[in-house]
Write a structure and sequence with these properties.
By secondary structure, this protein is α/β, with parallel strands linked by helices. It has two domains: about 5-175, 3-Layer(aba) Sandwich (Rossmann fold); about 180-310, N-(1-d-carboxylethyl)-l-norvaline Dehydrogenase, domain 2. The protein has twelve helices and twelve strands. The protein has helices at about 10-20, 30-40, 80-90, 105-115, 155-165, 180-200, 205-210, 215-230, 235-245, 255-260, 270-280, 285-310; strands at about 5, 25-30, 45, 50-55, 60, 70-75, 90-100, 120-125, 130, 135-140, 145-150, 170-175. The strands form three sheets. Strands 5-2-1-6-7 form a five-stranded parallel β-sheet, sandwiched between helices. A four-stranded mixed β-sheet has the order 4-3-10-9. Helix 3 links the parallel strand 6 and strand 7.
């Protein structure tokens, strides 16, 4: 199976690098500056599960992408989806399957509208990574799980083939019969953790010490009611895990969105919090989601103003 990984940053570089390490047919679609770096030093992974180095990863840029691929894995940030689509659309052939690993669920409708619903399967991953100054992919937690499946819940010939191509590559792979529920559960987890750590500009343990755990639970209640109304209520185990995570005293947990704010980078505010808020407002009062989204949009407005001043 010919696999195109859209992006070779933390997520795409990790899972794609693991696949390349065991000899799978993997090509990375990258920007020119990332290509230069990877051509110079190769693709390196530093992980508690073992380091890896791909001396000469197979790379391509949008301007020369002509081949068709069997599987396209999207690992870009949600705010880069439109640019990513323009970049990889020439690689979509009559039998191509698109597997997005983006946060939230809004991207599914965008991909369906562009390529048709039959091309798009559900997908998600749990991993925390960062690019170091020298371009190494640093795996900074002890989880590296990739889940995917037909959104209908069926197990089909194509998902079995995809699973065969992605399996036994040094990370945890799950062919899920409930991928949409999995995606919603992750969305609740991210909205609750990112929402609070961004609002409070702190770790979980710090805002718990400040007495803000009830606010975190109020936020989770708003998200949970939304998921139930949409037909994807979290199970007791998933909900219990999120509750414990967002109220754990002494926790040093932070989130990629809060780290992005600290380094004045773009954030997935609309795709994670904004979309949840829009759905929630149709059914319940949303004081926490409304406050958090206003906070994130204020950050983006300041960032845009500062950028305009520099131009």
């Amino acid at each position: 199976m010919r696999i195109l990984i859209v992006g070779a940053g933390g997520t795409g570089g990790y899972f794609g690098g693991r696949l390349a390490e065991v000899g799978r047919d993997v090509t990375f679609l990258v920007r020119p500056e990332r290509m230069k770096k990877l051509q110079s030093i190769g693709l390196s992974i530093h992980s508690p599960f073992g380091d890896a180095h791909i001396e000469t990863p197979r790379l391509v840029t949008t301007d020369v992408l002509r081949s068709k691929f069997d599987l396209i894995i999207l690992s870009c940030k949600a705010y880069d989806l439109s640019e990513a689509i323009r970049g990889f659309e020439t690689a979509v052939g009559p039998d191509t399957t698109i597997l997005p690993l983006l946060n939230g669920i809004a991207h599914l409708e965008i991909l369906e509208e562009k390529f048709g619903p039959d091309r798009v399967v559900g997908g998600m991953c749990f991993i925390s990574t960062a690019l170091t100054i020298d371009g190494t992919i640093a795996h900074i937690n002890d989880t590296h799980n990739l889940r995917f499946g037909e959104r209908s819940g069926e197990t089909t010939q194509r998902t079995e083939k995809i699973a065969e191509s992605l399996a036994n590559a040094g990370y945890d792979l799950t062919l899920s019969s409930k991928i949409m529920q999995d995606m919603w559960d992750k969305w609740l987890f991210i909205t609750a953790t990112a929402g609070m750590t961004c609002l409070m500009r702190s770790t979980v343990g710090d805002y718990v010490a400040a007495g803000a755990a009830p606010l975190a639970l109020q936020l989770l209640d708003e998200c949970t009611a939304t998921a139930r109304a949409e037909g994807f209520p979290p199970g007791a185990d998933a909900l219990g895990h999120i509750r414990r995570t967002i109220t754990e005293a002494g926790s040093t947990l932070t989130t990629s969105m809060s780290r992005d704010i600290e380094r004045n980078a773009p954030i997935e505010s609309k795709q994670i919090v904004g979309d949840m808020l829009e759905r929630a407002q149709q059914i319940i009062s949303t004081p926490m989601l409304t406050t958090i989204y206003a906070h994130l949009k204020s950050y983006e407005a300041r960032r845009e103003r500062d950028s305009a001043c520099r131009r």
